[in-house]
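Notebook, bench 3.
Goal today: get a predicted structure for Putative HNH nuclease YajD from Enterococcus faecalis RP2S-4 so we can plan the truncation constructs. The sequence was checked against the plasmid map this morning, with no discrepancies at the termini. Length recorded as 127 residues. Pasting the sequence as submitted so the record is complete.
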Amino acid sequence: MPKYCRQEGCRTLLEKGSYCDEHKRKKRVTKRYYSKNKSFYKSDEWKSVADAVRFRDRYKCTICHKPVFGRDSQVDHIKPIWLNPNLRLDMNNLRLVCATCHPKVEYRPQTQKEIEMKKNYNPADYF
């Protein structure tokens, strides 16, 4: 049974979903890259290196120096995997950041060259 788009004031009828194409939330681009690398982030090798980084950085965010544990404890690639896949497990390319600081360092402005590299990145070429 058709229903209306959930956006206030929109009268577009839908067969499925909650929002019409105009009001559908745009998926964050980073999700696509995370899902491409999902098997890497689930590997024992990554988990071991990430734990070593947490220990090395004494469970403190390297940006704001706040103590971080659990889900708030995120290991960040200084040079992203798509920029240099060979550094994905290099301890010198990793740092511990909190969930608040991670987006600040992750979504920095990118050059056009970096944007093209990100589009063409395929983890199957490296893993």
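The beta strands are 3-4, 13-14, 73-77, 94-98. The chain has five helices and four strands.
Flagging this for group meeting.
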